[in-house]
Amino acid sequence: MNQASFNQSLLSFLDDSPTPFHAVETMKRQLNAAGYQVLNEQDEWVISEGGKYYVTRNDSSIIAFTAPTLDFAHRGFRMVGAHTDSPCPKLKPNAHVDRFGHHQLGVELYGGVLVHTWFDRDLSIAGRVTVKTAQGSLKSCLIDFKDPIAVIPNLAIHLNRGVNSEGFKVNPQEEILPILCGSDKDFELEAWLIEQVQRQHPDFNVAAVLSFELSLYDVQKAALTGLHQEYISASRLDNLLSCYVGLQAQLDAKATQPSLLICTDHEEVGSQSACGANGPFLEDVLRRLVPNPEQYTQTVQRSMLISADNAHALHPNYAAKHDQLHAPQINQGAVIKVNNNQRYATNSETTAVYKDIAAELGLAVQTFVVRSDMACGSTIGPITSSEIGVATLDIGLPTFAMHSIRELAGSEDAFKLYQVLCKFSEREHLMG
Prior knowledge:
By secondary structure, this protein is of the alpha/beta class. 27% of the residues lie in helices and 27% in strands. It has helices at 3-15, 20-33, 72-75, 163-166, 189-200, 237-252, 281-289, 293-301, 348-361, 380-388, 413-426, and strands spanning 37-39, 51-57, 61-67, 78-83, 88-99, 102-110, 123-133, 138-144, 179-182, 206-218, 223-225, 231-234, 259-264, 304-308, 311-312, 335-337, 366-368, 391-396, 398-400, 407-410.
């Protein structure tokens, strides 16, 4: 695969994945096409040497792994981790709001949304809906309206004179409700959802919508941009960019060493869920593969995790926000993230492994350390490392406008990281 085809597939992946549920569904399609077998957590597993498998939890988290050998205790796993969720407005359970001549939707902000970027955008809705069928069974399905059906209009500057000098301040309860249509049009939320479910799932005979998890998203397509197309502009780059890179490396690396990809939900709100990195999903899978306690510990201690999440690129308009000796540039390579207070799980040995592989490929590596007078974010790296005890490296691709409705990354960086992750997945010996 060359960089051009890699990036075109990346753009399609981003467009096909408006929610974590859709991201997992998109990954499942690629894994199925590559011959991976689906496992169900409710079933007894039979793992065969040479097999390739994946398992999902909550439809929004996925683990895929290869088993070129079943001697996991002596070989360990080469793991890559990312997260499927992104900050966005999500519909409240009683979402329909009819006020002042408009049908609107009540929403709750999920994660650290850069709120002002959601105004004046063409928005659609996607997610998971659980219904009761006419036969009396409960079923869940994914829906995606795809068309622009909602908008959050800005307040005119004539009514908000201080907005440019005093800052953009938003009341999330009152001022971010998207408008669907005028009140003179008939609108009933359940009927609207039933119609969409039936349209996208004609085999369902829906009697009632019981619940839903629906998100707003921007319908503008992902694109290559810049004078020389040196940037990728898209929604949800944090962190579907890493999910895509990790998936392609999982699919394309030579299956000589056990490898594992884990993409989990709820990182943007702390990962504390049954399907989040702070939950038992990864450990549950590993203990089913290695039920012997002593061999389980051996497996973990012979493994390494690369936690891939976006990194803050040096913004030319805000250069003072960076430590100038640790200020990553877009398209200058992946970024090793370091924090001595363990907000990142990187250590000197995991750093050395990555740098050694990158040097073999002739690829540059950058380093990010947050300014000492600023708070540091975190990733699934420290969570996973402390949960199961695996040696971990935190890495990311340099990005502008993280948590905006539309983020910006380099069109060269993702392919470079993919090359390193392929070699990492094939590497038999980490140290020594």
